[in-house]
Amino acid sequence: MTPNIEAVRKRLAEIRERAEKATPGEWRLSGCDWIWSRPGSVEIGIMNCTTPSSESKCLENGQFIAASRTDVPALLALVEALLAEREAAFRGPHDAYWQALSSCDAALARFAGEAPDAN
Fold first, then answer.
1. In this prediction, what percent of the chain has a pLDDT beyond 90?
2. Where are the domains of the chain?
3. Cis omega (within 30 of 0) for bond into 73
4. How far apart are CA 67 and CA 29, in angstroms?
5. Do 86 and 112 contact (CB within 8 A), yes or no?
6. Phi then psi for 46, rounded to 5 degrees?
7. Which string of DSSP letters, residue by residue, matches 4-36?
8. What are the backbone angles phi and psi of residue 73, rounded to the nearest 5°?
9. How many other CB atoms are there within 10 angstroms of residue 24's CB atom?
10. Integer distance in angstroms from the first to the last C-alpha of the chain?
11. Residues with Cβ < 8 Å from 72, sequence gap 6 or more?
12. Pick from 8, 51, 69, 118: CA 20 to 30 A from residue 41's CA?
């Protein structure tokens, strides 16, 4: 499947815009309920873990939210690198490039929501 590269780039731009509007810097989880930005100690959010079912996932959810501040830009960079590799593959004359292109296309299509995840 050939992905809609314009849709991929549009989604990347939307995600990057949200990430750039968020409080900059690394975020940290304090205990099981506060998410802070360092340095500067800007409060990002409070986890509300008031029920037994929410308490069981509170720490994991907080870690995920805090890590997202650095994970999202890293993933954006990876997808942009895949796009660059894909574009280079179009210019390459070798069969290996076409195999890489097919793999990149499948990954980009899943990212754009155009194909079911292979998991």
1. 12
2. 5-111
3. no
4. 9
5. no
6. -125, 130
7. -HHHHHHHHHHHHHHHHHSPPSEEEEETTTEEE
8. -60, -35
9. 12
10. 17
11. 15, 19
12. 51
Give Cβ neighbours of residue 43 (< 8 Å, ≥ 6 apart). 34, 35, 36, 37
Helix axes 5-21, 52-91, angle to 10 degrees: 130
pLDDT in tens, 72-119: 998 998 888 888 877 777 766 666 667 777 777 777 777 777 755 444
Identity of the amino acid at 6:
E
Name the DSSP letter for residue 105. Answer: H
**How many other CB atoms are found less than 10 A from the CB of residue 62?**
23
Give the tokens for residue 15.
């995600």
Q: If DSSP codes are grouped into helix, strand and coil, which group holds residue 39? A: coil
- Alpha-carbon Rg for the chain, nearest whole angstrom, is 19
The one-letter amino acid at 45: G
Residue carrying the six token digits 């499947």: 1
